[in-house]
């Protein structure tokens, strides 16, 4: 296996690897600085400061401010981080060994860095707090959904565990709190086609070949609310939220379905009442049967 090239002297920062930027094979730039000014979405003064402070590295170390442009070369640097509001909830470890880490992720914490959520993500927090710089996610869980998420500790095993999730070899069980409809016949299997267009925040059910399937069961009822057991066999974006909303029983606290409501990122009230409760699979490395259960409880029920 080819060893991944890494810059000299530039380690992780806040649990984040440096960004890698490859130079094109040809170009009109005389210096690396000129190329960075054209390439990076920051002012020229910011590029000059990064170079002056030795924050841009190649394989040998910091790059000089007047370094020539090298066709096909590569440099590494840490991007400026967005301003983030700390998510005031902790991650609890459910299981840890030399191969995998399973945690209970709280509501409002993204799984991996993306967009406005970088440091305040489960991956970055765990890398930093558990001193696991090579940790990687085996799958993802929506920011507003709480519950079990699995990470891979050993980089050599990352592909095997990620493939297990991609090939739908993991049995997932969710819990949701939603209204009860007396005329809704349950249990039932909901099958539909769900699509999510790039740049559109919500997903939609549309006519066409089925690509999303969820078994819906009513586990318990208290007045007008029910505790639902959800067993998805596919993993489309917002699948469970879309399916329950389509049945006329949208999940309590859902700001997307059936009607989109804007909510500030620093509003940690009224979390979506959806919990990733169980992960169950045959370990692709050891062959043993594994089952993990979340210790979290949904506030609308407890």
From TrEMBL:
Pseudouridine synthase RsuA/RluA-like domain: residues covered: 100-245
Catalytic activity entry: a uridine in RNA = a pseudouridine in RNA
Organism of provenance: Actinosynnema mirum (strain ATCC 29888 / DSM 43827 / JCM 3225 / NBRC 14064 / NCIMB 13271 / NRRL B-12336 / IMRU 3971 / 101)
Residue stretches spanning the membrane: none
InterPro entries (UniProt xref): PsdUridine_synth_cat_dom_sf (IPR020103), PsdUridine_synth_RluA-like_CS (IPR006224), PsdUridine_synth_RsuA/RluA (IPR006145), RluA_PseudoU_synthase (IPR050188)
SUPFAM superfamilies listed in its UniProt record: Pseudouridine synthase
Name of the protein described by the UniProt record: RNA pseudouridylate synthase
Region feature (Disordered): 1-21
Family matches, as CDD domains: PSRA_1
PROSITE patterns cross-referenced by the UniProt entry: PSI_RLU
An MF annotation (GO) of this entry: catalytic activity, acting on RNA
GO biological process: enzyme-directed rRNA pseudouridine synthesis
One matching Pfam family: PseudoU_synth_2
């Amino acid at each position: 296996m080819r060893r991944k090239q890494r810059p000299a002297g530039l380690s992780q920062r806040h649990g984040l690897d440096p960004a890698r930027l490859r130079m094109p094979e040809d170009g009109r730039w005389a210096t690396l600085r000129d190329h960075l000014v054209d390439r990076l979405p920051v002012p020229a003064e910011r590029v000059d400061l990064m170079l002056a402070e030795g924050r841009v590295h190649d394989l040998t170390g910091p790059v000089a401010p007047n370094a020539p442009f090298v066709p096909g070369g590569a440099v590494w640097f840490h991007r400026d981080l967005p301003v983030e509001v700390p998510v005031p909830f902790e991650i609890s470890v459910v299981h840890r060994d030399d191969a995998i880490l399973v945690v209970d992720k709280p509501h409002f914490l993204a799984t991996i860095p993306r967009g406005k959520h970088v440091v305040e993500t489960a991956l970055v927090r765990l890398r930093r707090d558990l001193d696991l710089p090579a940790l990687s996610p085996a799958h993802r869980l929506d920011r507003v959904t709480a519950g079990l998420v699995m990470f891979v500790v050993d980089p050599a095993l990352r592909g095997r565990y990620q493939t297990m999730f991609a090939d739908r070899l993991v049995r997932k069980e969710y819990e949701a709190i939603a209204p009860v409809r007396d005329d809704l016949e349950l249990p039932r299997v909901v099958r539909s086609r769900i699509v999510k267009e790039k740049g559109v925040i919500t997903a939609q059910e549309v006519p066409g070949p089925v690509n999303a399937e969820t078994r819906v069961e009513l586990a318990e009822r208290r007045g007008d609310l029910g505790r639902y057991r959800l067993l998805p066999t596919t993993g489309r974006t917002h699948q469970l939220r879309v399916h329950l909303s389509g049945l006329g029983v949208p999940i309590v606290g859902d700001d997307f379905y059936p009607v989109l409501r804007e909510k500030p990122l620093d509003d940690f009230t009224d979390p979506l009442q959806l919990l990733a409760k169980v992960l169950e699979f045959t370990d692709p490395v050891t062959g043993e049967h594994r089952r993990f259960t979340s210790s979290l409880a949904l506030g609308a029920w407890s």
